[in-house]
Amino acid sequence: MSGTVILLGVLAVVGLWLVSIYNNFIKLITRSEEAWADIEVQLKRRYDLIPNLVETVKGYAAHEKGTLDKVIQARAEAMKGGSMADRAAEENMLSGALKSLFALSENYPDLKANQNFMKLQDELTDTEDKIQAARRFYNGNVRDLNIAVESFPSNLIANMFKFAKKEFFDIPDNGPEQQPVAVKF
Hints:
By secondary structure, the chain is mainly α. The protein has a single domain, classed as LemA-like domain (de novo design (two linked rop proteins), Up-down Bundle). It has six helices and no strands. Helix 1 runs antiparallel to helix 5 and helix 2 runs antiparallel to helix 3 (84-105). The N and C termini lie far apart (90 Å).
């Protein structure tokens, strides 16, 4: 009789442990999905601001068509989506193109003084800061999930329920974010 009670007690503890680990995985996955949604919101805001910024610059720097075309093309590529690695690379190309656009504004004092341009630039800078924060939040949640997927004994539960690691939203080593912006006068 006491052996049965002990066995039932051990099974209950193991069952509660399994449920606890499973629920932790659900929490980690949900947090990483929420963090990705935050990134998506900020990227959408950036995509919406870029055409207004480009149109404002066009009026002052019509002969700088190459730079403007690069920004428009980078925005179009970034909006396509794809895998996390592709998405990160495309977003980084867009960031580099925007840096070139802001560097271009240094050549046009009237543009730098334009209130609409300044407001758009400030909003875009604020959005870029929010994207950075959302990236850090996402990567932190992905880190926690990936550790749980690989750590013993939670990896047993991860394998049993097919919980998988997620990709980080990283900046490539040779990406435009790593390169200094060239300001030419």
